[in-house]
Amino acid sequence: MENTFTLGWEEWLSLPVLGLPAVRAKIDTGARTSALHAAAIEPFGTASNPQVRFLIQPNPEDESLEITCSAKVVDRRQVTSSNGEVELRYVIETPVSIGGREWPIQITLTNRETMAYRMLLGRSAIQDHMVVDPNASCAQPELSFALYKGLPRKRPVKRPLRIALLTREAENYSSRRLIEAAHAKGHVVEIINTTRCYMKIGGIVPEVHLDGAALPNFDAVIPRIGASVTNYGMAVLRQFAATGAYCLNTASAIGASRDKLLAHQILARANIQMPVTTFANSPKDTKSLIDLAGKSPVVVKLLSSTQGKGVVLAETTKAAQSLVDAFRGLDANFLVQQFIPEAAGSDLRCFVVGNKVVGAMKRTGAEGDFRSNLHQGGTAKAVRITKEERETAKRAAKELGLAVAGVDMLQSATGPKVLEVNSSPGLEGIERATGKDLAAIIIEHLEHHVKPLSRYRESQMTPQI
């Protein structure tokens, strides 16, 4: 038989999963249901996965300490308060910790701002081996509101996250996999069409609007911004960041990776090897531009190229000059790049998440095509990369500031050479080649990096727009 565990008429407790390290509660055996102070209660999620977000000021004497919590809803229940009022309340289930013991309880959410205690522990939360001494105050060890200083957080967070997937392609493989992985961990994902967003800039609170209403605050944003809307997508992403959301990749990092010339300059500054790359604006410099890239053949690449489109191999100097003149005639921005023959139409795609290479594949171009992109008919297989290749991929993503990246490299006689760093790498090819659940790894990264939940602390930060 378990030893008797005594509770006083008031006790200090913690609700660790909600991120509340210290709450002073009244133990009330006259009340069946436990209750927690909650303001600005905001339901979200779906009918099959209902969630609720709410604010709590755990210290009645310090209104500046304001914590945002979220939890899964297990019920909605009519509760009659001590003054006879009937209220329909959300019910959540979460572990409570008192005196070193922890057990799950159900809690109703209600506004208790006029009450002396932010929480009431009812008799349904008191286990059989527990007794309440009505003459004892804090029979178990006391805690302190000082525990909120610095807002210590366990990583990863266990609370449900409200995630925005910023994309115009909600039905493609990558979007579906990210949604599945998030739902499997109890999170809620809302699809936000990038180009349909509009912003209120300059108000007291940063806002992103969609379909005539302001969007709610999100814990995290996963940007899957198409190349054709990069600039507007970056502006929307900066606005989401200003609201306090954690952005999987920042707007500045996406901008740097999408500008191929800038990306190459950043990587070159960090002494990361890449094929020799040349760029010029004047048509008078065509021959010198090609000569600087090395002997023919050379690769001529549009700065806005994606999935292998706009990438052409010029077998001779004359062919290269014709290509350059043609691109200039179209008023297109392009660069000329050294061709690496020993790569033999293959490249490596290293998938980086949080400064770790979590998957790698070798892509080989279709018969007669030097481009290895899967969208151009190439094939892929999982591959074990070298330490040098792994470190090069990690460094390339880090220099561009990307938390998630697809780093494309060529295997040359002098070591790995970075071709491109993709800020919205597709999941289909590499998940099928490696058999790894990379979508789940991305969601785990989000769980480790969502921002602290104190609205007061976040309000002290100066948004960077």
From TrEMBL:
Q: Report the domain of life of the source organism.
A: Bacteria
State the needed cofactors, names only: Mn(2+); Mg(2+)
Q: Which InterPro entries match?
A: Asp_endopeptidase, ATP-grasp, ATP-grasp_RimK-type, ATP_grasp_subdomain_1, Peptidase_aspartic_dom_sf, Rimk_N, Rp_bS6_RimK/Lys_biosynth_LsyX
Q: Name one GO cellular component term.
A: cytoplasm
User: Where is the ATP-grasp domain positioned along the sequence?
Assistant: 264-447
Q: Per UniProt, which keywords does this protein have? A: ATP-binding, Ligase, Magnesium, Manganese, Metal-binding, Nucleotide-binding, Protein biosynthesis, Ribonucleoprotein, Ribosomal protein
- Any single biological process term in GO: translation
SUPFAM superfamilies attached to this UniProt entry: Acid proteases, Glutathione synthetase ATP-binding domain-like
Which terms does the record give in the GO molecular function aspect?
A: ATP binding; metal ion binding; ribosomal S6-glutamic acid ligase activity
Which family does this protein fall into?
In the C-terminal section; belongs to the RimK family.
Q: Give the protein's recorded name.
A: Probable alpha-L-glutamate ligase
Q: Which organism is it from?
A: Harenicola maris
Gene responsible for this protein = rimK
